[in-house]
Design a protein that fits this description.
heterodimer; A: 240 residues; four-stranded antiparallel beta sheet; 10 strands; B: mainly alpha
């Protein structure tokens, strides 16, 4: 579904991603873990071109994202993204936050989008917040809305960039629950996270990144029980 | 006893008190031969010049800010040469305008570029507008750049185009953020209209000075001018506060 070939990214002299090749298959839940500064967020952000790779190609369902001639907006419509800091639009109500993109991109009419928004909000238990503004919500609520906003575009894949890292501990659960539900429905997901429990429970594959490389990958069971690489062992000994 | 009689009485006094003297001076500066009307003629010009300059300034400012921001936010690797040239012109414009005094710009416009023009007021408005545009451009650019880049990213990640993201997400928030600075720039512009009297623009100061040449008394004409500006600024500040309060709606908790 997403094919990454020889992806390299550097900021000035600093090499963040070092020749990464990876394939993400439909229905997979890939969890990317690793120490901070390892390049995992940059890797994720390259997948929908929020960061432009220095070299290498990324192909999504046969469309080459990295080709300057490709219509990046069209591709991004099929890739939902959830950010660490939610990035809800503070100048709009929750309803408008969710319906803006589907309506403006011509995916739905306003009344259809409103219905979709309400259905999704009901699923995450926030239908009474439709007319509130983001500033009136807690962090966990904001992140659930952000997930709903991405889902409203009916994406084929969802990218999560440390979705629980900015949350108070007691709110992490509610967001992970929504993500687990999404995983159970068969959504293809790429998740950068520090939640090892989530990786163990939901991932179909765990990637471990350090210093711009994917050092090792495995099924979560094998990965946590039997890490191969020294760096991985060191990392897991610190976080588990 | 009406005001005119009082004026005649005080004027005839041999040893007037300081208050009686002030009254005579004020009467000369305001009521005598209906002089108050010329202040208001000046006021009308001041408002006209401000409105014209404001429109020029906002149009230029938005244009320059848009070009400069679009240039800075290009995807690395896909630089547009035409945009680069236009961006350079914008940079030169802002540098020259911000690097030279308003008064000098006004005199160059009035006495060099449009030396043969009789429309001093219009030339003044044009000079003020061009000046204001550079500052407005920097204010708008600052507002656009100060916004969390995550807002642009969130809009783009949903598949919205650059222009749609700007229009619905970035600009409304940036506008709210720059409103105080924009209001300040408007006040500066309003007060700077007083400078066009140096190229014979017929605004309030121009008429105040005309009155002084008749009465040889500068105090009241200048005080009156100051009060008129102050009242205009107060009214505007009040309107601005109301607008800001309305735009803060989405911040309520």
């Amino acid at each position: 579904m997403i094919d990454v070939k020889h992806l390299t990214k550097s900021f000035g002299d600093h090499l963040v991603l070092n020749d990464i090749s990876e394939h993400i298959y439909p229905g997979e839940k890939v969890v990317v873990i690793g120490p901070s500064g390892s390049g995992k967020s940059t890797f994720l952000r390259c997948l929908n071109l929020l960061e432009s790779p220095t070299s290498g190609t990324i192909t999504f369902n046969g469309m080459e994202i990295t080709d300057p001639k490709s219509d990046i907006d069209l591709i991004r419509r099929q890739m939902g993204m959830v950010f660490q800091h939610f990035n809800l639009f503070p100048n709009m109500t929750i309803r408008k936050n969710i319906t803006l993109a589907p309506v403006r991109t011509g995916l739905m009419k306003q009344n259809e989008a409103d219905e979709v928004a309400m259905t999704l909000l009901r699923r995450v238990g926030l239908e009474e917040k439709a007319d509130a503004y983001p500033a009136q919500l807690s962090g966990g609520q904001k992140q659930r809305i952000a997930i709903v906003r991405a889902l409203a575009m009916q994406p084929k894949v969802m990218l999560f960039d440390e979705p629980t890292s900015a949350l108070d501990p007691e709110m992490v659960g509610e967001v992970l629950d929504v993500m687990k539900e999404l995983a159970n429905e068969g959504m293809t997901m790429v998740v950068v996270t520090h939640e090892m429990g989530f990786a163990r429970e939901v991932a179909s594959r765990v990637l471990f990144m350090a210093d711009g490389n994917i050092l090792e990958q495995n099924s979560p069971k094998e990965f946590f029980a039997n890490p191969q690489h020294e760096r991985t062992k060191l990392f897991l000994s610190k976080v588990l | 006893m009406d005001l005119a009689q009082l004026y005649e009485t005080f004027k005839g006094l041999e040893n007037p008190s300081i208050w009686q003297e002030f009254y005579v001076k004020f009467y000369n500066a305001w009521f005598f031969e209906d002089r108050w009307m010329s202040y208001f003629r000046g006021l009308v010009t001041t408002i006209e010049v401000t409105v014209i300059a404001l429109m020029i300034g906002v149009i230029l400012g938005v244009l320059v800010a848009t070009i400069r921001t679009a240039h800075d936010q290009q995807r690395p690797g896909s630089k547009n040469i035409l945009l680069g040239i236009v961006n350079l012109i914008c940079k030169i414009y802002v540098t020259i305008i911000r690097g030279t005094p308003m008064m000098v710009q006004l005199m160059i416009m009035g006495f060099v570029i449009f030396a043969s023009s009789r429309e001093a007021t219009l030339v003044g408005a044009l000079a003020l507008g061009i000046n204001s545009g550079a500052y407005v451009a920097e204010i708008i650019r600052g507002g656009l750049m100060s916004l969390d880049p995550g807002q642009m990213e969130a809009g783009r990640s949903l598949g919205l185009g650059y222009l749609d993201t700007m229009r619905f997400i970035v600009i409304p928030q940036a506008f709210k953020a720059i409103l105080p600075a924009l209001g300040n720039e408007f006040i500066v512009l309003l007060k700077d209209t007083s400078l066009i009297s140096v190229i014979a623009g017929k605004e309030i100061v121009y008429f105040a000075r005309a009155i002084i040449t008749k009465t040889y008394e500068p105090m009241f004409p200048y005080l009156i001018t100051a009060v008129m500006y102050l009242i205009m600024v107060l009214i505007f500040t009040w309107l601005q506060t109301k607008l800001e309060r309305r735009l803060r709606q989405s911040d309520r908790r």
